[in-house]
Amino acid sequence: MEGGGVDHLAEERQKSRFDVDEMKIVWAGSRHAFEVSDRVARLVASDPAFRKDNRNLLSRKELFKNTLRKAAYAWKRIMELRLTEEEAAKLRFFIDEPAYTDLHWGMFVPAIKGQGTEEQQQKWLPLAYKMQIIGCYAQTELGHGSNVQGLETTATFDPQTDEFIINSPTLTSSKWWPGGLGKVSTHAVAYARLIVNGQDHGVHGFIVQLRSLDDHMPLPGITVGDIGMKFGSGAYNTMDNGVLRFDHVRIPRNQMLMRVLQVTREGKVVQSDVPRQLIYGTMVYVRQTIVSDASSALSRAVCIATRYSAVRRQFGSQKGGPETQVIDYKTQQSRLFPLLASAYAFRFVGEWLKWLYTDVTQRLQANDFSTLPEAHACTAGLKSLTTSATADAIEECRKLCGGHGYLTSSGLPELFAVYIPACTYEGDNTVLLLQVARFLMKTVSQLGSGKQPVGSTAYMSRAEHLMQCRCSAQRVEDWLKPDVVLEAFEARALRMSVACAQNLSKFSNPEEGFAELSADLAEAAIAHCQLIVVSKFVEKLQQDIPGQGVKQQLQTLCFVYSLHLLHKHQGDFLSTGCITPKQASLANEQLRSLYSQVRPNAIALVDAFNYTDHYLGSVLGRYDGNVYPTLYEDAWKDPLNDSVVPDGYHEYLRPVLKQQLRNARL
Ligand SMILES: CCCCCCCCCCCCCCCCCCCCCCCC(=O)SCCNC(=O)CCNC(=O)[C@H](O)C(C)(C)COP(=O)(O)OP(=O)(O)OC[C@H]1O[C@@H](n2cnc3c(N)ncnc32)[C@H](O)[C@@H]1OP(=O)(O)O
Ligand SMILES: Cc1cc2nc3c(=O)[nH]c(=O)nc-3n(C[C@H](O)[C@H](O)[C@H](O)COP(=O)(O)OP(=O)(O)OC[C@H]3O[C@@H](n4cnc5c(N)ncnc54)[C@H](O)[C@@H]3O)c2cc1C
Predict the structure, then answer these.
(1) 131 ligand 1 Cβ < 6 A
(2) Is 116 annotated as a binding residue?
(3) Ligand 1: residue whose CA is nearest its atom 31
(4) Which of 272, 322, 477, 644 lies 20 to 30 Å (CA to CA) from residue 431?
(5) Tens of pLDDT along 123-173?
(6) pLDDT given for residue 665 in this prediction
(7) Do residues 319 and 408 both lie within one domain?
(8) Would you state the pLDDT for residue 450?
(9) Are 89 and 154 found together in one domain?
(10) Using alpha carbons only, how large is the chain's radius of gyration in Å?
(11) Phi and psi of 556, rounded to 5°?
């Protein structure tokens, strides 16, 4: 994508055996999506206002102010250029800096859309769309995050004044973590226990104004601030995650989001026919976006590690010739190429999840709630699977880049620091896997009842076959048959779920059993989610994919993804009797051969992500591979090198050196 200078990776690029430009379109999702993404990426990269290479040198205050500046400037550009929502979303993506706007657009607006009545939407959405108010999503408290039903903030209806009184009764009920809350938001969708006539009706969302629209001061009864520095310098510290306490704050009754439950003027609580779980709907939406984000973060780390692995040489010089490129070491390939394949796999499962989410949203609008449990299980499970894998992968990419990967200028430390909370926010990954496990146990318990499993569990309808089938792979090539691979993954997932269900049935108290077996249940959930990813990759390959060699590359990556999982989890596959040790060894042999096929295409496969050097933010991942001169020059730019003799020499170094000298003379 970058032009200019000598291309140190040109030879690598010439080795590739497919049409990279067509692959860029597959990666982007469509030609239109590619064009938008490419245009906006260049816009951001060419605008000095979006410079980000100094982030880790700024103090927290400077960093935060800088983020406010960028967000305001981005908003100005969105207006000036009349960007569409799609273009604005891309602009946010390429600016690459967590900001309050993420929560405003990503959670506050969707919460009102999903949980507000028509009337409430008409009142609040225009204000939010024009950013005349800025909102956050204030759910988590100091004492409870995962257990939403355990939240302590109260919203007590006062029939005298037709208001709710929002209160934080304990220290642990303080809202804690919401992004955008600390210093920016004027409003919040705050989650609180609804109390009417002394009766607790569970947790609901309320629109609460926090700060004055005139001078930004907190309104009476509101205590609000930032919760302090987070992991890493720069990184997520651009975000003002906040603390909030309510001291009997009064809001009008019509500021409770009432799509699910209404409280009338008389104080009557009326349940609509919309399921209660819709209160959790915003989380479902964001989990879906987090899966797509996982493929972006992972592809970025992989792009850096792949390009650098082709530039870096160690050992193996023959007759004074060049040393071996580290990408040619089989160990490097076996660590790197599965991550490359995972980036593509997560991309495609993210596309599918977006479709699933859109479908469920349309159904919900028509009061069809039948696919909500499936949407919850898939978004929760895939969010957990993809973010855990991506967080581990970024760290692996750092190691794949050796010592230089540890330098900030590699881009990997900041990427890691920004990314890892994705394993926690929007639902702790283990807690989410256990939600999937509950869904699986329910599905397994209904097998044989005549109720056919559908959607992601449709494979369970072939339980009789999958429980006793034997894998047919006899030769290495058999592991390139999608049906063989899919059946192995289906059988493993089903058998692990059934084993859990059988063990659960031994407990007289099911909840006790679930707690006792939760580690096994989480593993069964992982097996199910991995099957979803594999099957969506296989489905993608059934589509018409134009471009010379493109489909073949994707096929290779699909098998790399599947067979590396099979290798990594061979304990599961063997212990459930889905494959034999001989078949596991054949699969591994096939995997090694696939790595050799990926090797000549590796650079082109990461070029297909179409990332600008600005977005990558990595000296090691530069498009032109000109790593060493840039690293060398960059080092001299460090503020520590502003002076040859460091500040502090006279106070702290010289006296020590002199003392040593004196001691030596004695
Ligand atoms: C710069 C310029 C900008 C310009 C403009 C830009 C324009 C547009 C840009 C768009 C940008 C979009 C950006 C988006 C990106 C956003 C970035 C986000 C960053 C991260 C923020 C992080 C925010 C948070 O973390 S918010 C807090 C999240 N909290 C959690 O996730 C809590 C986790 N806990 C739970 O979800 C629950 O407590 C749970 C599920 C663990 C247990 O709940 P409960 O006790 O009630 O349930 P159960 O008894 O287990 O289940 C009961 C029943 O309900 C079912 N169920 C549970 N959850 C759901 C659900 N979500 N949906 C549906 N059903 C659910 C469950 O399965 C049970 O069903 P049964 O049938 O009864 O078994
Ligand atoms: C960067 C960041 C941004 C955030 N932004 C927001 C925001 O905008 N708005 C908002 O409301 N919240 C936000 N949060 C809060 C976030 O959603 C919660 O931290 C998250 O849901 C996890 O909850 P917790 O902190 O209570 O973890 P805990 O539940 O306390 O987890 C601690 C440990 O206990 C384990 N555990 C907990 N329950 C179970 C169980 N039932 N079974 C087995 N193990 C269990 C977990 O696996 C974990 O290992 C943010 C958090 C972070 C880190």
Answers:
(1) no
(2) no
(3) 427
(4) 272
(5) 999 999 999 999 999 999 999 999 999 999 999 999 999 999 999 999 999
(6) 80
(7) yes
(8) 85
(9) no
(10) 27
(11) -60, -45
For residue 191, give Cα distances in angstroms to 139, 142, 175, 226, 422: 5, 13, 9, 19, 21
CB 204 within 8 A of CB 191: yes
Annotated catalytic residue 633: no
Report residue 491 as tokens.
């059988």
Q: What is the pLDDT of residue 664?
A: 82
- At 269, is the secondary structure helix, strand, or coil? strand
The residues near 581 (Cβ < 8 Å, ≥ 6 apart) are: 574
Instruction: Flag whether 331 is in a domain.
Output: yes
Q: What sign results for the dihedral spanned by CA atoms 207, 208, 213, 216?
A: negative
Domain range for 80: 22-95+282-423
Protein residues whose CB sits closer than 6 Å to any atom of ligand 2: 103, 137-140, 144-146, 177-179, 236, 241, 421, 424-428, 430-431, 434, 518
Residues 190 and 144 in one domain: yes
Helix (H, G, I), strand (E, B) or coil at 220: coil
> Which amino acid type is present at position 631?
L
Q: Can you read off the two tokens belonging to residue 597?
A: 């096929």
Number of domains in the chain: 2
Question: Can you give the pLDDT at residue 490?
Answer: 98
Q: Which of 102, 103, 134, 146 to mutate to test the pocket of ligand 2 (most atoms within 8 A of CB)?
A: 146
Rounded to whole angstroms, the Cα distance separating 326 from 5 reads 24
pTM of full prediction above 0.90? yes
Q: What is d(CA 625, CA 196) in angstroms, rounded to the nearest whole number?
A: 65
Residue of the CA atom closest to atom 29 of ligand 2: 146
DSSP H helical segments within 424-549, as ranges?
429-445, 463-468, 482-504, 510-516, 518-541
Pairing of strands 154-158, 242-246: unpaired
The answer to whether 386 is annotated as binding is no
For residue 285, how far is its CA from the centre of ligand 1 (angstroms)? 7
Catalytic position from the list 152, 426, 487, 490: 426
Give CA–CA dist 557/338, Å, rounded.
Answer: 8
Burial of residue 46, with CB atoms counted within 10 A of its CB: 0-12 exposed, 13-18 middle, 19 or more buried: exposed
Q: Give the nearest ligand 1 atom to 140 CA.
A: 27
CATH of the domain at 198: 2.40.110.10
**Predicted pLDDT at 282:** 95
Q: Residue for token digits 């273009």? A: 87
Residues 350 and 296 in one domain: yes
Q: What are φ and ψ of residue 191, in 5° steps?
A: -95, 130
Residue 391: which CATH number? Answer: 1.20.140.10
**Per-residue model confidence (pLDDT) at position 551:** 98
The interaxial angle of helices 31-45 and 85-95, nearest 10 deg, is 50
What's the rounded Cα separation, in Å, for the pair 144 and 150?
6
The single-letter code of the amino acid at 651 is E
Rounded CA separation 527/483 (Å): 17
What is residue 12's predicted lDDT score, i.e. its pLDDT?
97
Burial class (CB within 10 angstroms; exposed 0-12, middle 13-18, buried 19+) of 355: exposed
In this predicted complex, what is the ipTM? 0.98
Q: Is residue 327 part of a domain?
A: yes
| Main-chain phi, psi angles of 532, to 5 degrees | -60, -45
